[in-house]
């Protein structure tokens, strides 16, 4: 059976598209595996270590004093306003942020354009967002993806949650942990 000229052109065009899609899939898969490996390093490397110094500001340029992060219990939530998983995380966190009066939650935008990101996040998040000026805190904690939650007690990192808490099992685990801590 002979292929028509049109069919031959189609087959010839299909080959580079197939190669491109296969290469993209392999690249994406390798990148995800690398991130999972870095996740394990992140959690084990920071647990029971002091929280690095932070310079966090809100939309109005007011600073969240670094000293405030050194006392009491808090959960730092690293999120981006243009992140769909962060939107889901925010919806879940709305249900728990007021369940413990002794634990403060702080939303932190780790990177991106400060003014633009803070404006986008201002009316979107359940709490006032702060921007990590210079991304120093994020870089010191090796945060390269969001959302991530970090529990800090008296300036010491005690627990890290990677990725969004969107399935029911993870939400129940987080709520149970929050009640018990």
Quick synopsis:
The chain is of the alpha/beta class and 181 residues long.
Mean pLDDT: 85
Secondary structure tally: strands: 7
Q: Count the helices. How many?
A: 5
CATH H level of the largest domain: which superfamily? Glutaredoxin
- Identify the strand order in the major beta sheet: 2-1-5-4-3-6-7
Element-level helix/strand string: HEEEHEHEHEEH
Identify the overall geometry: elongated
Please identify the structural class as seen in this structure. alpha/beta
Q: How many distinct domains?
A: 2
CATH topology of the largest domain: Glutaredoxin
Q: How many strands, which pairing sense, and closed or not: the largest β-sheet?
A: 7 strands, mixed
CATH class of the largest domain: Alpha Beta
CATH architecture grouping of the largest domain: 3-Layer(aba) Sandwich
Radius of gyration: 21 Å
Measured by DSSP, the beta-strand proportion falls in 15-25%
Low-confidence stretches: 34-41
Please, could you describe this protein's structure?
This protein has 5 helices and 7 strands, in the order αβββαβαβαββα. The relative contact order is 0.18. A 7-stranded mixed β-sheet has the order 2-1-5-4-3-6-7, sandwiched between helices. The chain has 2 domains: 1-46; 50-180, Glutaredoxin (3-Layer(aba) Sandwich). The model is unreliable at 34-41 (pLDDT under 50). The chain has helices at residues 5-46, 84-94, 114-122, 136-140, 168-180, and strands at 56-57, 63-64, 73-78, 103-109, 129-132, 148-153, 156-162. The longest helix has 42 residues, at 5-46. With 181 residues, the protein is of the alpha/beta class.
């Amino acid at each position: 059976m002979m292929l028509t000229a049109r069919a031959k052109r189609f087959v010839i065009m299909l080959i580079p598209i197939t190669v491109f899609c296969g290469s993209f899939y392999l690249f994406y898969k390798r990148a995800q595996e690398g991130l999972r490996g870095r996740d394990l390093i992140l959690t084990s490397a920071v647990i029971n270590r002091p929280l690095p110094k932070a310079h966090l500001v809100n939309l109005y340029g007011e600073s969240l004093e670094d000293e405030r992060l050194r006392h009491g219990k808090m959960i730092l939530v690293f999120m981006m306003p243009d992140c769909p998983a962060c939107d889901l995380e925010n919806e879940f966190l709305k249900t728990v942020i007021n369940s413990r009066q002794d634990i403060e939650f702080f939303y932190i935008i780790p990177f991106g354009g400060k003014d633009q990101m803070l404006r986008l996040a201002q009316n979107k998040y359940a709490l006032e967002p702060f921007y990590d000026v210079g991304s120093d805190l994020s870089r010191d904690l090796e945060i390269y993806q969001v959302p991530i939650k970090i529990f800090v007690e008296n300036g010491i990192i005690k627990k890290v949650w990677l990725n969004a808490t969107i399935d029911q099992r993870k939400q129940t685990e987080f709520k149970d942990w929050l009640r018990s801590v």
